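It is worth pausing here to work through a concrete case rather than discussing structure prediction in the abstract. The textbook approach is simple: state the sequence, then state the predicted structure, then interpret. We follow exactly that order.
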Amino acid sequence: METEHVPEKARPSLEVSANKRSSSSAESPEAEHSIPSSENSSFDRAFKKVRTSDSTESLTGTFELLEPARSLCEVADPPFVLEFSELVKFMEDVVGESDVLTIAFNYTSDIVGLLDELHQIYTSLSHTSIRNRCLKVQRKLKKAYARHQTCSMESNNDPDTY
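Step two, the predicted structure:
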């Protein structure tokens, strides 16, 4: 197969772009790292996802964020473990806390019922931030309660305890 001669001006340029390497850079590994560090860092920053805070969450209290679940709490049969006002206070108390189980025991001894309540109200919540908070509390509470159950079972099975 015979190659056709292309005039110099008609050839595509071999400039290095962000998405493609030129044939000369493929041959020399040092060419890949030839971009100055100041240009490289600004290039990386251009593609990083910027996370913005949700201004409505910071301006809206927990009571208002949980408001869509209020009717569900009032008509639940059997009744939920926590009333709506207790649920609001509980959700405010657990924010940023690592020991959610101790806080939950301050409200109720029925942790499984509380987990079920959180699961049921989740579907009625409309704001993303309170939905995420609800899921996070559920996850932390499940994990802590499972650890608590395991520890209490081990202490009950220990023959040295009387």
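Step three, interpretation. Residues 61-155 form one domain. The CA atoms of residues 73 and 83 lie 7 Å apart.
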